[in-house]
Write a structure and sequence with these properties.
Oligomer: heterodimer
Order of helices and strands of chain B: HHHHHHHHHHHHHH
Number of strands of chain B: 0
Largest interface: A-B, 29 and 31 residues
Strand content of chain A: 15-25%
Structural class of chain A: alpha/beta
Shape of chain B: globular
CATH architecture of chain B: Orthogonal Bundle
Radius of gyration of chain A: 19 Å
Radius of gyration of chain B: 21 Å
Structural class of chain B: mainly alpha
CATH class of chain B: Mainly Alpha
Helix content of chain B: over 70%
Strand order of the largest sheet of chain A: 5-6-7-3-8-9
CATH topology of chain B: ABC transporter involved in vitamin B12 uptake, BtuC
Number of helices of chain B: 14
Largest sheet of chain B: none
Number of helices of chain A: 9
Helix content of chain A: 25-40%
Largest sheet of chain A: 6 strands, mixed
């Protein structure tokens, strides 16, 4: 009954062990086990309310699990870059594009160290990589939503993290920007970084993401994208009851 | 009378005018950047609340030691700090938001202060506490204001990055400041760094209001903090230039207010704040960033 999920081998970077997450005792992710391999590029797919964002929050440590564990293998605090679905960014803050991208160096410069020529050049290269050369001194208040998303990707490029978590990075972003940012994701994959992205566009997932986790509160399937996104699996995911059951009984499922 | 006489004469001739000028400079250096950060953190009205909260401490200091600057300043500082900490604490342990609990505590504090002063002091003393006496600043007062400006600038230099990032992108600071793993959810190093910065910043706000209150009075002190900071938004688009602009506007308002007060025999505190207010109205009308002028006369649009 339990699908054959990628197991915790030596190369696993993030291992999930019987993980249950949620809000107010109601599970949003229910008994999920498996692992993200080092260097893998995984899409997390599922209907709204399936627990996709919740899973990413637990991996960055912003949400304590109800049960089970997230184990990070050899990852320090600065090794994770996380792009939340709704970044709580003050968009009219008086800061320019280059300074925003330079924040990605936080792990190296901290509170006091100077940002030297070399770090600035890295930030400029990151801006070039997302197609924003020449925008260095533009205030972020003057950017469109797509341009700002490019800036956030540039900041993640600079962060140089081993694990990159993207929560719906291409929602409300036009096709060209999406294509450019997907190039960045592919570049990360080529550099053997581990990327996990929550996505809704199945064509995009099939075209660019080798692995997929199909989540509908319960894990439906996890593996090669072609094996995961089958019609049968998608039907099962769609059948998930989105509403809370207020009278749900406490879960007695034994930890596997 | 030449323009030089009118503008420089009072300062050359009278020591008390020079003292007042120095006090204005020190106040501007501290209040400018603190005000800018208050505006950026959407806490503009918090400064106002804090300036009222200072009153009972100053009044108790006045009762204990007479019109002693140090007693009143320390009292005012403690009262302001108590209100800031209580408001912060209540907003964390109950569902009341921080601005509402600030309002509640500063009103209690203000009423207590007015009661104390009116029970024991004469009306003249109350006027001193409420409206300040920048023309009577002595050496001790100057040292206090200059010391507060120094502490403020050094602290802001140390905490500049986390203060700015906490305000711009708090989620990022939580993420990079350290992981919450192992601790309670959301209680990681980053959020602790953010909370510590917030607290230290509130202390700076109280300190600068205390510095301003002996010169401008508790009611006017916040004027030199918020008016230049709000005006600076119409001139500058970066945090550092905003702070410099606010400092400049604050100092220019100080000089202008002192001269007006000298030549026209007006009370100095309101004169200074009204000059700052005039600068604000001009900025709002004419400034290059988002002012009425750029809205009504944007100029021909560019080609790209």
């Amino acid at each position: 009954m339990t699908p054959a999920f990628p197991d915790a081998a030596a190369e696993t970077l993030v291992r999930l062990t019987d993980l249950t997450l949620g809000y107010r005792r109601h599970p949003a992710v229910h008994h999920l086990s498996g692992g993200f391999r080092d260097g893998s590029l995984t899409a997390v797919v599922g209907p709204n309310g399936a627990g996709k964002s919740t899973l990413l929050k637990a991996v960055v440590g912003a949400l304590a699990p109800f049960g089970g564990r997230v184990t990070l293998h050899g990852l320090g605090a600065g090794d994770i870059a996380y792009l939340p679905q709704q970044a709580e960014v003050e968009r009219d803050f008086p800061i320019d594009v280059l300074d925003t991208v330079l924040l990605g160096h936080w792990r190296r410069v901290g509170l006091f160290r100077a940002v030297g020529r070399a770090l600035t050049r890295q930030a400029e290269e990151a801006l070039a990589a997302v197609g924003l050369s020449g925008f260095e001194r533009r205030p972020i208040a003057a950017l469109s939503a797509g341009q700002f998303q490019r800036v956030l990707f540039a900041r993640m490029l600079v962060q140089d993290a081993r694990l990159i978590l993207l929560d719906e990075p291409f929602t409300a972003i036009d096709a060209r920007t999406t294509a450019d940012l997907l190039d960045v994701v592919r570049r990360w994959h080529g550099e053997r970084r581990t990327v996990v992205a929550v996505l809704h566009d199945l064509e995009q997932v099939r075209a660019h993401f080798p692995d997929t986790l199909l989540l509908a509160r319960e894990p439906i399937a996890w593996g090669r994208t072609a094996d995961t996104l089958t019609a049968a699996n998608l039907d099962r995911a769609r059948a998930m009851a989105e509403a809370w059951d207020d009278s749900a009984a406490p879960c007695r499922r034994a930890a596997s | 009378m030449t323009a030089f006489d009118a503008l420089a004469g009072p300062f050359l001739e009278f020591a008390f005018m020079r003292r007042a000028l120095a006090a204005c400079l020190a106040l501007s250096l501290g209040c400018g950047p603190v005000g800018v950060l208050l505006v950026l953190r959407r806490m503009s009205l918090m400064g106002d609340a804090m300036s009222h909260a200072v009153l009972p401490g100053a009044a108790i200091g006045f009762l204990a030691a007479g019109l002693s600057l140090w007693a009143m300043s320390i009292g005012g500082f403690l009262a302001g700090l108590a209100v800031a900490l209580l408001a912060g604490l209540v907003s964390r342990v109950t569902t009341l938001r921080e601005d509402a609990s600030f309002a509640a505590f500063y009103l209690i504090s203000l009423a207590g202060g007015v009661l104390i002063v009116s029970l024991r002091g004469s009306n003249v003393d109350l006027m001193h506490v409420l409206f300040g006496t920048i023309l009577a600043v002595d050496d001790g007062g100057l040292l206090l204001v200059a010391g507060i400006a120094t502490v403020t600038l050094l602290t802001l230099a140390l905490l500049y990055r986390p203060l700015v990032v906490e305000c711009f992108d708090p989620g990022f600071l939580r993420a990079v400041g350290g992981s919450a793993r192992g601790g309670s959810a959301g209680g990681g190093l980053g959020s602790r760094l953010g909370a510590a910065c917030h607290l230290i910043f509130l202390v700076l706000v109280v300190l600068n209001l205390v510095g301003g209150f002996q010169a401008l009075g508790t009611l006017m002190a916040v004027g030199l903090m918020m008016l230049p900071a709000a005006s600076a938004r119409f001139w500058a688009e970066r945090v550092a230039t905003l702070a410099l602009t606010a400092m400049t506007i604050a100092f220019a308002s100080g000089v202008g207010g002192l001269l007006l007060s000298f030549h026209l025999n007006l009370p100095s505190g309101p004169a200074i704040v009204l000059v700052a207010g005039t600068v604000h109205l001009l900025s709002l009308a004419l400034g290059p960033v988002g002012s009425l002028r750029t809205r009504w006369f944007p100029g021909r649009h560019l080609t790209a």
